Amino acid sequence: xxxxxxxxxxxxxxxxxxENVEVLLPALLGLRPRVSVLVVDDGSxxxxxxxxxxxxxxxxxxxxxxxxxxxxxxxxxxxGFARALAEGADRVVQMDADFSHDPRDVPRLLAALxxxxxxxxxxYCRGGGTRNWGLGRRLVSRGGSFYARLLLGLPVQxxxxxxxxxxxxxxxxxxxxxxxxxxxxxxxxMTLRAHRRGARIREVPxxxxxxxxxxxxxxxxxxxEAVLMVPRLALSADSSLRHSPRRESLRWGxxxxxxx
Length: 260
Hints:
Blueprint: E1 8-14, H1 18-29, E2 36-41, H2 48-56, E3 62-66, H3 73-86, E4 91-94, H4 106-112, E5 118-122, E6 129-131, H5 135-152, E7 164-167, H6 168-174, H7 183-196, E8 201-205, E9 207-209, H8 220-234, E10 249-251
Parallel strand pairs: 1-2, 1-4, 2-3, 5-8, 6-9, 8-10
Antiparallel strand pairs: 4-7, 5-7
Helix pairs in contact: 1-2, 5-8, 7-8
């Protein structure tokens, strides 16, 4: 798979998501503007990689990056981002395979990149929300975003969100240094690195729906990592995280047509 000029690539990490990717790939390939799709599969026992490979054999806009085993969400995204950039993508979208991120929102995120370097599909800006979540999960998610935003000084509402669109120039800069985190922590760290590099960050409202099939990959260990990692990021001496921020986070509500 090689992207064309002015091309957008959607990077989707998977582990045991065969039922979902067999529906997700046609949904993404049918979008306008056209996108390419790169699936990063961590050796799924259910044959997710084989299902993607079958589609890729007849559709040049689909690519597959196979990994030896379950190596973690953060490293899956980093390897997928690097592959997409090497193949010529100028815009990169990251999303889950389980339809908690609606493929129909991808064009809105890409459109918002016209005036931003990073766009976050946000559950917590005006017009965003969640569906089919219990009270406990809502409290943990909102509390995690508030905690990270407070300690890190991030000017965004949905700090732990994983539905994002990146300009290639920013993503290359953010990936220059080793990303340390997984799960929620990875999402927080990437947004922080972008912010401290002076990126223009915007939030576009989305409705996050609980997965259709399969089991969540989020574990207590991953959540604890995020809780412990936030103070370390706040105190980090890493020069890549010490650039002077240029605060510009414009949150669009449902009546703002610029992101549609």
